């Protein structure tokens, strides 16, 4: 199965929503697919477009699990979102951090508060191992590594 079709399981959605900072109101879910993340975000004002690349504006937070087929599209969406908010909660392949020094540097310099490792069973049949990046623009402290 192609990773483009992997919708976020409910328990992972809950984990991601639990990271949304207090006082957040507007949220962009750039690539909603079947809407699992949107459904998990209950009372927030959520923008969930059919075509992310047609969307502009700024949001209190971005909560996302973008398509990764090809991988470059997922990275492109992450970088574009980095210009639209100060807070990003992103389900990404581990490769995001470990196969490009440039990308690791960009993400770390933007602000990376924590990386939550997801067990392989989170996306059965997927060829890539995933994690949740909790990014806060301007954060300069050490990055926390979490298991769930
Ligand atoms: C990995 S799935 C995740 C879906 C959803 N974000 C979730 O967390 O369950 C990625 C989704 O992105 C959608 N998608 C792909 N390109 C898109 C685009 N340009 N704009 C909006 N959605 C897009 C696909 O339909 C696919 O369902």
Kindly report how far apart the N and C termini lie.
25 Å
Beta-strand share of residues: 15-25%
| Main sheet summary | 7 strands, mixed
CATH fourth-tier homologous superfamily: Vaccinia Virus protein VP39
User: What is the CATH architecture annotation?
Assistant: 3-Layer(aba) Sandwich
Look at the structure and give the mean pLDDT: 95
Number of strands: 7
Overall CATH class: Alpha Beta
Order of helices and strands: HEHEEHEHHEEE
Oligomer status? single chain
Uncertain residue segments = none
Strands ordered across the widest β-sheet: 2-1-3-4-6-5-7
Helix-strand category: alpha/beta
Task: Write out the distinct hetero groups bound to the structure.
Answer: S-adenosylmethionine
- The CATH topology is given as Rossmann fold
Compute the number of helices. 5
The count of domains is 1
Q: Please state the overall shape, judged from the principal axes of the Cα atoms.
A: globular
The Rg value, from CA coordinates, equals: 14 Å
Helix content, binned percent: 25-40%
């Amino acid at each position: 199965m192609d990773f483009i079709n992997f919708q976020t399981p409910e328990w992972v959605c809950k984990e991601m929503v639990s990271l949304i900072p207090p006082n957040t109101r507007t949220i962009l879910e750039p690539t909603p697919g079947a809407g699992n993340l949107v459904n998990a975000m209950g009372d927030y004002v959520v923008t969930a477009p059919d075509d992310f690349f047609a969307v502009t504006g700024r949001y209190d937070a971005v909560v996302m699990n973008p398509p990764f087929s090809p991988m470059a599209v997922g990275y492109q969406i992450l970088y574009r979102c980095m210009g639209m908010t100060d807070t990003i909660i992103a389900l990404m392949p581990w490769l995001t951090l470990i196969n490009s020094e440039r990308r690791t540097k960009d993400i770390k310099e933007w602000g990376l508060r924590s990386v939550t490792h997801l067990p392989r069973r989170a996306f059965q049949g997927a060829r890539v191992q995933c994690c949740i990046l909790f990014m806060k623009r301007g954060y300069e402290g050490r990055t926390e590594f979490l298991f769930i």
